[in-house]
Amino acid sequence: MTAPIRCSDEVADALSDGRAVVALESTIIAHGMPSPRNVETAHAIEATVRDGGAVPATVALLDGTIRVGLDSDEIDRLGGPDEVAKVSLRDIGWVLAAGVAGATTVAATMFAAHRVGIRVFATGGIGGIHRGDPHDVSADLTALGRLPVAVVCAGAKAILDIPRTLEHLETLGVPVIGQGTDVFPEFWTRGTDLPVTVRSDDPARTAVILEAHWSTGLTTGVVVAVPVPTGHEADRSQIDAAIDAGLAEADRANVHGEDVTPFLLAHIADSTSGTSLDTNVALVLNNAAVAARIAGSLSGG
Ligand code: PSU
Ligand code: MN
Description:
By secondary structure, the protein is of the alpha/beta class. The chain has a single domain, classed as Indigoidine synthase domain (Indigoidine synthase fold). It has helices spanning 9-17, 27-30, 37-51, 72-78, 92-98, 106-116, 139-146, 162-172, 203-215, 236-252, 260-271, 275-300, and strands at 5-7, 21-24, 55-62, 65-68, 85-87, 102-104, 120-122, 150-153, 176-179, 198-200, 222-225. Strands 1, 2, 3, 4, 5, 6, 7, 8, 9, 10 and 11 form an 11-stranded mixed sheet that branches. It starts with a strand and ends with a helix. 53% of the residues are buried. Bound molecules: pseudouridine-5'-monophosphate and manganese (II) ion. Pseudouridine-5'-monophosphate is lined by residues 25, 27-28, 32, 88, 105-106, 124-125, 127, 138-140, 157, 187, 258, 261, 265. Pseudouridine-5'-monophosphate (PSU) is lined by residues 25, 27-28, 32, 88, 105-106, 124-125, 127, 138-140, 157, 187, 258, 261, 265.
C-alpha cells in the first residue's frame, strides 16, 4: 500500500529541483480566523511566499489523502461553510479513513512537511501549554520535539502559559531562534522579557544555524520566532482583558480539548472588534516572507 500523501506537481518539481518550498498549515484557515478573512489571508500568504522566491505548500487532508500543495478552489473549500475536522497528530489516521476534509495544525503540518522533505514552515503562532490547565499540552510541542522542521511563527499567544511552554520546549531540546529579537514574541505584541535561545538578525544566518543543528544528526524541530512588525502591534491591555474574559467564558461554557484554542481565538477577535485580527494577518504575512528567505538560503546552501 502506498502512503496516502501526495504533493502537487508544482511542489514535487520544486523539491526535486532543490528549490525553496515553504509549508503552510490549514487550521488557521478553517478554525483560526473568521470568514472571509481566513480565505483572503490564505491566498495572500501563498502570494507572499511566491514573492519571496519560494513555492507555497499548504497542507490539508482531502478525500483520504494528505495533500501538500493545494489549488485555489481547495483552499476556498477549507475556509468555506462545510464542516472541516481539526487534524492534529492523533487525528491523521481516522480523518484519512473517514475520507472527510481535515485542516492540519502545526503538529500535523510538520509531519506532512517532514514526510515530503520540506524543512521550513510558516504560520501565525504555535500551540503550547494552556493557562488554567497545565495538562492541556498541544501536540505541537510533541511534533517540535520529534520532527526536524523549522516553524517560523510570531511565538505563542498569551492565551497560553508562555513561560511553561518555553520550559517545555527546552526539555524537548527545541531551540528558539529570535529573528531580530532577544525576547520571545507573544503573537499580538513583540514580547516582554522571556529570553530566546539565540538571536539571529538575518534570515540567512538563521539558515546557517538550522543547517548546523540538523547536520549533527539532531532530529528536533526549531522555533523561529519573529515579532509582529512594529506598527501592527495590538494594544497590550486590550488583549490582556480580552484573554481574561475569554478564559472565564471558556470555563463557564465548559469548553475543553481541541475546542479551547479556536474558542479563545474567536472570542478575542470578537471582543477586540477585529483589530486583533488585523494584527494576526499582518504577522502571518510577515512570517511567510521571512520563511521564504530562510528557505531560499537553505536550498542555496
Ligand atoms: N495559535 C494561533 N492560531 C491558530 C492556532 C494556534 O494563534 O490558528 C492553531 C494552530 O493550528 C495550532 C493549533 O497548531 O491551533 C493548536 O491547537 P491545540 O492547542 O488544540 O493543539
Ligand atoms: Mn489541547
